[in-house]
Automatic annotation (TrEMBL):
Gene Ontology cellular component terms for the protein in this record: cytoplasm; nucleus
Catalytic activity: diphospho-myo-inositol polyphosphate + H2O = myo-inositol polyphosphate + phosphate
Renumbered residue ranges of the record's region Disordered: 168-187
This protein's name: diphosphoinositol-polyphosphate diphosphatase
Domain Nudix hydrolase: 17-145
Source species taxonomy: Eukaryota, Metazoa, Chordata, Craniata, Vertebrata
Major location (coarse): cytoplasm
GO molecular function: bis(5'-adenosyl)-hexaphosphatase activity; bis(5'-adenosyl)-pentaphosphatase activity; diphosphoinositol-polyphosphate diphosphatase activity; endopolyphosphatase activity; metal ion binding; RNA binding
GO biological process: adenosine 5'-(hexahydrogen pentaphosphate) catabolic process; diadenosine hexaphosphate catabolic process; diadenosine pentaphosphate catabolic process; diphosphoinositol polyphosphate metabolic process
Cofactor(s) needed for function: Mn(2+); Mg(2+)
């Protein structure tokens, strides 16, 4: 079953890229195990949880909201890994953050509505799983390791430094009952 959001407003930047946000979710601060979720389009394939930004939403808030909806986890938002582009068919620009999971829900929005699943993988296993059908998502995880030859993998647009693009976002973000992951002062 495919995920459908009737009231979703797609947002685009000045260059025509769809604005997206995602989180690489780790079981703990050792960053050895990453959480992947089943794709809504292809339930037999795994993806990094993430999705479109809503109007006036900051990238960090969108990333936390998407992880809550798609993976059913809450946690401590960490550094920005980078901003990744997918040009071929979709023209997406995705802000990707690290999130250390502190709470895992038994049932969550996408598990109930579309039967989405989640599973923990080692970083190496996740890269292998993602490489075949979501190579851009595999690049998110490759960014975790120090580069072998160059300071960038060619996909990221900004350096990976914590809090640069979202200085007002709190480190701990919990979605409100109304569904917004933004703190009350930012809604």
């Amino acid at each position: 079953m495919m995920k459908f959001k009737p009231n979703q407003t797609r947002t685009y930047d000045g260059e025509g890229f769809k604005k997206r946000a995602a989180c690489v979710c780790f079981r703990n601060e050792l960053e050895e195990e990453v959480l992947l979720v089943s794709s809504s389009r292809r339930p037999d394939q795994w993806i990094v949880p993430g999705g479109g930004m809503e109007p006036e939403e900051e990238p960090c808030g969108a990333a936390v909201r998407e992880v809550y909806e798609e993976a059913g986890v809450k946690g401590k938002l960490g550094r920005l890994l980078g901003v990744f582009e997918q040009n071929q068919d979709r023209k997406h620009r995705t802000y990707v953050y690290v999130l250390t999971v502190t709470e895992t829900l038994e049932a969550w929005e996408d598990s109930v509505s579309i039967g989405r699943k989640r599973e923990w993988f080692t970083v190496e296993e996740a890269i292998r799983v993602l490489q075949c059908h979501k190579p851009v998502h595999a690049e998110y995880l490759k960014r975790l390791r120090p580069p072998a030859r160059s300071p960038t993998n060619g996909n990221a647009l900004v350096p990976s430094r914590p809090d640069d693009n979202c200085p007002n976002c709190p480190l701990y973000v919990t979605p409100s009952p109304q569904g917004s992951a933004l703190p009350p002062s930012r809604r």
